[in-house]
Design brief:
Number of strands: 5
Number of helices: 16
Largest sheet: 5 strands, mixed
Distance between the termini: 55 Å
Strand content: 5-15%
Helix content: 55-70%
Radius of gyration: 23 Å
Structural class: mainly alpha
Length: 471
């Protein structure tokens, strides 16, 4: 059922693999560091690279020591193994649900529950909400062992996890409750719009989802993210002044800069900016900042171990120096200056409109419902699930690849913008440092990289910046 209700896994040098709550995808929000998409399928060719590339390639000799190279190789190998088994389980689970009639069974169960509460078959929206609640609960329960293993075995083994079991479960419960508080009202309104929208309901449904997306992006960092992490304004000082000066130099309407305590859950790094029009804000994870990261501070020994998080001071300095942080911000603000954010919004909304239009064309096909065990009824929510998840699956794969190609192009353009700001040298060192901090493996199979990496491989970006430094 995890596949049937959706499970997002993406992150931007992959710096935020295990930590923090990710902001809503897309609209007016950019991550401030670099990454690649995580593949759900087993990358055989890339796994072979992890197994056989045991020595630092000559071209990497000046930027990566053998110890870090081996650590990153083993980390990525463990993640690849986990991805294979979790992906296999997900496929088997989804197949068994389809073959055994799991979807109509859950729908009928939802009807029984809503019926006992006094809502008959005519209250389809109520039954749909019960179905959605049960489906997401099933997804959360069956996904829990995989999440526990990933956090407390893989991330723990490689020194990234900072959570205790108590913090983990508290976080998971809070996440589930917040998700339901958003998902159920939005879904009920969407279903109602589709019911009363007439022949042009797809236009109203698209406009509704557009408004919801804009609202979520607007309120995420101010009201949702603080439920999970502590946000504090970046203290007055040299870094804040330099950020404000750079933003002003390119007419970026910056209003606030926050630091989030990402080190409470993971030592992975991340950053992003968000906001509309003249009200944009930057969020920096403390693990990204060398001078602010709690992982670089010596434990005081006064309070002992925190009840919710663990203190794991490393021997190495983590994060970037101020000049490197500014270089990374220069790259990311380049996305805004070059219009990448607006272009992504336009593409996203064109795709959303197309999907709702095709949904309107296909929703009346009874054979689609019959293929999934619905012979007498055609619930709107089930139609959305069938068409968006299964019928559109080939289209979604092609679209994903096209967006990956476009994203890589945007990344090179943003790097070029950082060069124009005179940040090539600092961005060069920041990319190396972040890749090292997050144990990114710099060697990749070209086919795997072309299909999955939303950002160019590290060596390609470094070569472009190196050419700029020599000019």
């Amino acid at each position: 059922m995890r596949k049937l209700v959706g499970r997002s896994r993406d992150s931007l040098i992959k710096v935020k693999e295990g930590g923090g709550k990710k902001p809503p995808q897309g609209l007016q929000r950019q991550s401030l560091t670099t990454s690649h998409k995580q593949a759900d399928a087993w990358p055989v060719s890339q796994r072979r690279v992890y197994r056989t590339t045991t020595h630092v390639p000559q071209e990497l000799g000046q930027i990566m020591d053998s110890e870090t190279f081996e650590k990153s190789r083993l980390y990525q190998l463990d993640k690849s193994t986990f991805s294979f088994w979790s992906g296999l389980y997900s496929e088997v689970e989804g197949t068994m649900i389809l073959l055994c009639g799991g979807i109509p069974f859950l729908w009928n169960l939802s009807g029984q529950i809503s019926g006992r509460a006094g809502f008959g078959p005519e209250y389809e929206i109520v039954q749909s909400l019960v179905f959605l609640l049960l489906a997401t609960l099933f997804s959360a329960v069956t996904g829990l062992p995989w999440s526990l293993y990933n956090t407390f075995v893989i991330e723990e083994k490689h020194g990234f996890n900072q959570q205790t079991l108590g913090f983990f479960f508290k976080d998971a419960i809070k996440k589930f409750i917040v998700t339901q508080c958003i998902l159920l009202p939005v879904t009920s309104l969407l279903l109602y719009i589709i019911k009363i929208g007439g022949d042009y309901f797809f236009i109203y449904a698209w406009l509704f989802t557009l408004v919801v997306s804009l609202v979520l992006v607007t309120i995420y960092a101010d009201y949702i993210a603080p439920l999970f992490d502590k946000f504090i304004p970046l203290p007055e000082g040299e870094l804040k002044q330099q950020i404000e000066t750079m933003a002003k130099s390119i007419d970026f309407p910056l209003t606030k800069v926050y630091v989030v305590e990402g080190s409470k859950r993971s030592s992975h790094s991340n950053a992003y900016f968000y906001g509309f029009f003249k009200n944009k804000r930057i969020v920096l994870f403390d693990t990204l900042l060398e001078d602010y990261s709690a992982l670089n501070k010596e434990p005081s020994g006064e309070d002992g171990e925190n009840e919710e998080t663990k203190s794991k001071t490393k021997n190495k300095k983590q994060g970037c120096k101020n000049e490197e942080v500014l270089a990374v911000l220069g790259h990311e603000l380049g996305h805004w200056k070059l219009g990448h954010t607006v272009k992504n919004i336009i593409i996203s909304q064109m795709n959303s409109f197309l999907c709702f239009f095709l949904f309107a064309v296909l929703i009346g096909r009874k054979e689609l419902f019959a293929a999934f065990g619905f012979y007498d009824t055609q619930p709107t929510l089930i139609g959305l699930m069938i068409i968006f998840q299964f019928i559109f699956s080939p289209y979604n794969e092609v679209l994903s690849f096209c967006l990956t190609v476009l994203s890589r192009r945007f990344e090179f353009q943003a790097d070029a913008f950082a060069k124009e700001l005179g940040k090539a040298k600092d961005l060069y060192s920041a990319l190396i440092k972040l890749n090292k901090d997050n144990l990114g493996f710099p060697v990749s199979d070209w086919i795997f990289s072309m299909w999955h990496y939303s950002h160019p491989p590290l060596l390609e970006r470094l070569q472009a910046l190196k050419d700029a430094k020599q000019e």
